[in-house]
Amino acid sequence: MTDLLTLYDHDLRIAHTIPGVHKEVLPTLVRFMRPAPGMNYVAYSHLVGQDLDAIIEEQIAYFSNFEQPFSWHVCDHDLPADLQTRLFKHGFKPDDDPDAVMILDLEKAPQILLEPASRVRLVTSESELDEVIAVEEQVWGGQFGWLKQRLAAHMVIPDYLSIYVAHLNARPVASGWVFFNRDSAFASLYGGSTVAAYRNQGFYTAVLAARVQEARARAYRYLMTGASTMSRPILEHYGFEFLTYHYSLEWQGRQNK
Hints:
This protein is α+β, with helices and mostly antiparallel strands. It contains seven helices and eleven strands.
């Protein structure tokens, strides 16, 4: 598992790039700046033997130049061990609902995820994203226009993003997507949502299977996703293994210091 953590850090936190997002690699950390009004963030840091408080203040000063929110991403295995506590003292808010980073070795994918996903369709046009947004808004509430814009921008990048929707009687009931990270052993799963009235009918599994099969066909070794407490047991049932917790600590201002 230690080797897999090292590979995860390298591929998805250090070497990782996102189209349209500016990345800077510093000696002790990696940071990303999204187009406004998106969330900027520190993706990775290794601050052992450093003046931790000074580096945190440097990042606050840097990100404060942008009129955008920013956060610091931390995993359980990051060092120093008190990194989160130190960030809290500088005005970062605790993440009370961290993602459970789950990994599936595609060479060990169970047979059920290799069966044809007949009720699932690949999204091929921007107009079809309305079905994805409809599912997300029903599941999570709120407005997801920003998501349509982001997915549409990534759809036009060759071989980068695949989006799937499951239907029942022409009604979209589940959706999910997968990013095929360049020069990485990992493809990344996102979405994975099913409208409440249609759960426990195989739609979540079908959307997952479609993405598993495409990732295998593209010769990726692993699938990675950040699981909620609701989806983690389902993913574990299908062979995903827990790797670490991933926290997004948003800066709230100096009143929390």
